[in-house]
TrEMBL record:
It comes from Streptomyces buecherae. Belongs to the nitronate monooxygenase family. NMO class I subfamily. The keyword Oxidoreductase applies. Nitronate monooxygenase that uses molecular oxygen to catalyze the oxidative denitrification of alkyl nitronates. Acts on propionate 3-nitronate (P3N), the presumed physiological substrate. Probably functions in the detoxification of P3N, a metabolic poison produced by plants and fungi as a defense mechanism. One of its GO terms (molecular function) is nucleotide binding. It catalyses: 3 propionate 3-nitronate + 3 O2 + H2O = 3 3-oxopropanoate + 2 nitrate + nitrite + H2O2 + 3 H(+). Keywords: Detoxification, Flavoprotein, FMN, Monooxygenase, Nucleotide-binding, Oxidoreductase. Gene3D superfamilies: Aldolase class I (3.20.20.70). This is Probable nitronate monooxygenase.
Length: 372
């Protein structure tokens, strides 16, 4: 792993920060103990809850780890569009016997308070999603010894991260499960599926900025890790692969859905949050996705109770089943074991490539003076 990431982990494997409960301290500790880099997800948590998880993780492990923050969102949503969507969801509220949430519950995810905690009691790595921190923030974190990583989905976003002084970028391809980490959800941009695939994005970003790259998007096997490392990434970030581990805090229905043949594909949708996110195509996504407005986090707040009620009712058709494109490759095993399996697959892939390269090397030609 390159300079900004050196010493953080034995292997170039990063466990993605999955907001909503999956990335709990037990998972980050297990990944770190096995030689990967574990992450906590501060998104949707109070500052106090974030800090409790940090303390819990430190009590379990002394290896480096990261914390992911959501950037505050601009107030660009159309309140009338959110109101119309709320009317459409009235049937869901009646079905699950739960009220819709307040869409105006806040759009900054307590960013400043969480940042203040991380500056006062530093952690090894802080990553940012849904935007780019200011240079002042990156410099403040650098002064306390924290490595900063910014999630990017385009070359322009990578250039912004470099200009802000980030130490590394997490390059997220369109294959990734959960939310696309775009810095701005532009309602006038091309359709949600117009993003770049991971390998193409790695090459473009590598040419544009002199920063270490963490590759993310649909990675489930060590062979895929070998591919992104060969393409120029310093490490690979996996989320869906770790979601089904016993240490993950994901709901059991969510875990089982990863390999359930009922769910045949993933889609990008705004149905649950108002922002593009990849999940298993279920009833809620199909019925409401086409009509969901560009309104994050307003739609997230609106549907929060519905998603919880669906989970309590044992109904995966009403849940946000975030998943990457490779979800059918999920393997249910302890996180530490999974890290080792991925490392073994990575080394086998590297050995295979080296062997094939040796076979393909030109052989010396026999000449008149050669000894037979």
């Amino acid at each position: 792993m390159s300079s900004a990431l050196t010493g953080l982990s034995r292997y170039p494997i990063v466990q993605a920060p999955m907001a909503g409960g999956a990335s709990r301290p037990q998972l980050a500790a297990a990944v770190g103990a096995a030689g990967g880099l574990g992450f906590l997800a501060a998104g949707y948590k109070t500052p106090a809850a974030m800090y409790e998880e940090i303390k819990h993780l430190r009590a379990q492990s002394d290896v480096p780890f990261g914390v992911n923050l959501f950037m505050p969102q601009p107030a660009t949503s159309d309140p009338s569009a959110v109101a119309v969507y709320a009317e459409q969801l009235a049937g869901e509220a009646a079905w699950y016997e739960t009220p819709l949430g307040d869409p105006d519950s806040g759009n900054d995810d307590a960013y400043e308070a969480k940042l203040a905690i991380l500056l006062d009691d530093p952690v090894p790595v802080v990553s940012f999603t849904f935007g780019c921190p200011t240079r002042a923030v990156c410099e403040a974190l650098a002064r306390v010894g924290t490595v900063t990583v910014v999630t990017v989905t385009t070359v322009e976003e990578a250039l912004a991260a470099h200009a802000a002084g980030a130490d590394a970028v997490c390059v997220q391809g369109i294959e990734a499960g959960g939310h696309q980490g775009t810095h701005r959800d532009d309602p006038h941009a091309q359709g949600m599926g117009a993003g770049l695939g991971l390998l193409a994005l790695i090459e473009l970003v590598r040419d544009a900025v002199p920063l270490p790259l963490i590759a993310a998007g649909g990675l489930m096997r060590g062979t895929q890790i070998a591919a992104v490392l060969a393409a120029g990434a310093s490490a690979a970030q996996l989320g869906t692969a770790f979601l089904v581990c016993p240490e993950s805090g994901a709901h059991e229905l969510h875990k089982r859905a990863m390999t359930d043949t009922t769910f045949t594909r993933t889609e990008l949708t705004r149905a649950f949050s108002g922002r593009p996110a990849r999940g298993l195509a279920n009833r809620f996504l199909r019925e409401h996705g086409p009509y969901a407005p560009v309104a994050y986090p307003q739609v997230h707040h609106l549907t929060s109770g519905l998603r919880k009620a669906a989970a309590q009712a044992g109904d995966p058709q009403g849940m946000a089943l975030w998943a990457g494109q490779g979800h059918r490759l999920a393997r249910e095993m302890p996180a530490g074991h999974l890290v080792q399996v991925l490392v073994d697959e990575l080394e086998a892939a590297r050995a295979g490539l080296a062997a094939r390269a040796g076979l393909a090397a030109p052989q010396p030609r026999s000449g008149a003076g050669d000894v037979a």
